[in-house]
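User: I'm writing a short methods note and want a consistent example. For Sensor domain-containing protein, I'll paste the sequence; you return only the C-alpha cells, no commentary, since I'll be parsing the reply automatically.
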Amino acid sequence: MDQTLTMTRTPATGLVRRLGQDTTYVAAGFALGVVGLAVVVTGVSAGLGLVVVWIGLAVLAGTLLLARGLAHLERHRLVRRGRDVPPASYVEAPAGAGALRRLLTPLRDPQSWLDALWALVSFVTGTVAFSVLVTWWVTALGGLTYWWWQQWLPDQDRTLVEVLGLGEGRRDESLLQLGFGVVALLTLPLVARGCAALHAGVADALLCTRARVTRR
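Assistant:
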C-alpha cells in the first residue's frame, strides 16, 4: 500500500517541483535581464561617448567583461536545467602581451560581443516570459480564491459574467472566476515550461553555439 501511495504521489510531486524550478528560472532571468540591460546600455553609451579620448575603449572593454560575467552565470543556470553547455571559447591575449593589449583583447573577441548582445536580448525574453507567467499565476490564484475576496469588491453595474451572458450576481461571477482559475492552474505547468524554454533557448543560441562549433 505504501508503494502504491508513493507511485501515486511521485508524478504530482515532480510536477510541482518542475513548476517551482521553471518559475524560479523565469523570475531570476527577468531580474538578471534588468541588470544586464543597465550594465550594457550604460557601459556602451559611456564607452562610445569617451572613445575620442581613448578612455572609452577601456570602458567598453570593462563593459564586455561584466557582460561576460553575466553570461557565465546564465551558462551555469543552463547547466542546472540539464543542458549540455560546452566551455566558453574566448580570445586571449598572447603570452607576454602588455597590459594595454590584454585590456583591449575583449574588444576583438566575437563571443564577448555575443555576451553583450545576450545581456540586451535577455531583458526582452525575460520580460516576455515573466509577464506571461505572472499573468497565469495571478489568474490561477485569483480565480481560485475569488469566492473569498470578492466580498471586499465594490458593487458594479455589470460584472463580467453578465457581459458574457452567462448569469448574474456574485455567485455566478464567482463560478466564472473559479473556472478561469481552474483552467489557468491546469495549464500553468505547461506555460511555465514554455516560458522557461523560450528564455533558455535564446540563451543557449547566443552563449553556446560558437563554443559548440569551435569544439567540433
